[in-house]
Amino acid sequence: MASKPKDVIDLKEACVRAAHEVIKEEGIENLSLRDVARKLGVSHQAPYRHYASRDHLLAEVMRRCFEGFAQHLDARKHFEEPAADLASLGQRYLGYAASHPLEYRLMFGTPWPQPAEHPSIASGAGHAFDVLRDVLRRMHGAGASARAAVDLDAMFIWSTMHGLASIQQADVMAQLQLAPKVRTATVAHAMKMIAAAMAGVDRAA
Predict the structure, then answer these.
(1) Which of 41, 112, 158, 178 fits 182 for a cystine, CB–CB 3.0-4.6 Å?
(2) Which ranges in the chain are annotated with CATH 1.10.357.10?
(3) pLDDT tens for residues 147-170?
(4) Integer CA distances (angstroms), 49 to 6, 56, 145, in order
(5) DSSP readout, 38-94?
(6) Which are the contacts of 36, defined by CB distance < 8 A and separation ≥ 6?
(7) Distance between CA atoms of 101 and 198, rounded to whole angstroms?
(8) Closest Cα to residue 76, out of 131, 12, 8?
């Protein structure tokens, strides 16, 4: 099979980078293929060679966000003890949200394009979620009942981490007149409470 010309590949990649810049500068509501073309200095029709619509381009941007997010989580310091590995994963999650606020909002604060038309987003999100599942499987073991428990615990932990990350991004805590020691201890306390909840779970329930 003949390889694609380099300029075709470059345009496809350039569209993704330009879309990311448009979202960062003007907000996702103002993303359009016309704006992407204008930023790249190409004809208005050029992006359509690779992306059938604005949503197709947005789907690719979001897919790459999830891909990078999963890689970031995978690159954490790993521990043989599941509880320690879970704590490491939580810190890594919050670190990503703090250092990649735009990507985090795109993944978790943006309505997705129709998933039936863009299954790659769901696949990327599932891969990122599986990083958490893998740690919890080491706690719960195998079996049909364990699968349900893993997903329930994963949703509990993710909800807690997402809520904390979102509050930190919005800097809501700065408006609550909290004592400095409360603000600095918030993350550690949340992680401690998750650990306590996981340690106290009745695995036979």
Answers:
(1) 178
(2) 65-199
(3) 999 999 999 999 999 999 998 888
(4) 14, 12, 48
(5) HHHTS-TTGGGGT-SSHHHHHHHHHHHHHHHHHHHHHTSPP-SSHHHHHHHHHHHHH
(6) 15, 18, 19, 22, 47, 57
(7) 28
(8) 131
Torsion of CA 144, 145, 147, 149, to 10 degrees: 180
Q: What is the pTM of this model?
A: 0.85
Superfamily of domain 65-199: Tetracycline Repressor, domain 2 (1.10.357.10)
Q: Mean pLDDT by 10-residue block, N- to C-terminus, for the chain (205 residues)?
A: 51 95 93 94 93 93 94 94 94 95 93 79 89 93 84 95 91 84 91 89 49
Tokens 């893993």 belong to: 150
Tell me how far apart the alpha carbons of residues 143 and 63 are, in angstroms, rounded to a whole number: 31
Q: Which two tokens mark 146?
A: 């364990």
